[in-house]
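ugh ok fine here u go
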Amino acid sequence: MVEMEVKETKPEAEKANMTNIDVTEIINKVRDFVENVREMSGKPVDVKVEAFNFAFGKDENQYNLSLDTKISIKPKAA
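structure:
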């Protein structure tokens, strides 16, 4: 779980807003996708996660979420 504090840029705004981003939930959705591919194939598969990068940031008036992953799913060698 990631917790963020977001402050207004207005001078009269002293209060910060808080929000939570559940990174674990995002990772679980990727895991569910991989499991669905396994089930569709009907055969044993090898799964290799070659990259998994997650970033969240704020740039002026917008928020940016970046999820970059490379997952290889192939039939197991006999």
